[in-house]
Amino acid sequence: PSIIQENFNVNKDRQSIMGHSMGGHGALISALKNPGKYRSVSAFAPVCNPSKTPDIQFILKCYFGDDIKTMEEWDATCLVTNYKGPELNILIHQGKNDQYKEQLKLDNFASACEKAGITVSINVEDRYDHGFYFISSFIEQHFHHHSKFLCDSQ
User: Fold this and answer.
1) What is the rounded CA–CA span in Å between residue 91 and residue 109?
2) Which domain holds residue 47?
3) pLDDT at 2
4) Spatial distance between the Cα atoms of 51 and 66, rounded to a whole number of angstroms
């Protein structure tokens, strides 16, 4: 963010964040760990519950060892259950034919949001997988989503 703030005419008090797959998870946890920093967050096919996903859990163990509590501190589904901050304005798209959908665990995140009273707009799109064609098909919706919270009318 400092490179952007130093080189472009931006308002540092009006930020949003988005990402795809593991980057989508990064966008979610960045917003959840920094209440109020981002006005909106969106993700394409985000990894939502890595501490409960065996393939990804293996990677987390390389970073955190076997400490499940520490893993959960970096897990969007676990973080959203205790979120205490301003509205997050979350938008998520996932392809119905995503080859990684079992690892992404979007349903776990949706359930955790519902239990925590966090509003999230989730769109599961027919005939799309995890790839960049999927992103290019829906990126405009994400730009519009963020513009609602970043433009001067706010």
Assistant:
1) 12
2) 2-148
3) 86
4) 11
In a domain, 29, yes or no: yes
121-135 pLDDT, tens digit per residue, is 999 999 999 999 999
This prediction has a pTM of: 0.92
Rounded mean pLDDT, 69-77: 96
What mean pLDDT is predicted for residues 2-6? 89
Distance separating alpha carbons of residues 139 and 84, to the nearest angstrom: 28
Kindly give, in sequence order, each residue whose CB lies less than 8 Å from that of residue 25, ignoring residues fewer than 6 positions away: 19, 43, 46, 47, 48, 50, 76
CATH number at residue 14: 3.40.50.1820
Residues annotated as catalytic (active site), given as ranges: 21, 98, 130
Q: How many CB atoms lie within 10 A of CB 71?
A: 20
Q: Say if residue 71's pLDDT is above 90.
A: yes
Is residue 36 a part of any domain in this protein?
yes
Cα 23 to Cα 34, 43, 86, 153, distances in angstroms: 16, 8, 22, 29
How many Å is the Cα radius of gyration of the chain?
A: 16
Strand partners, 92: 43, 122
Q: Is residue 153 part of a domain?
A: no
Q: How many domains does the chain have?
A: 1
Residue 154 falls inside a structural domain: no
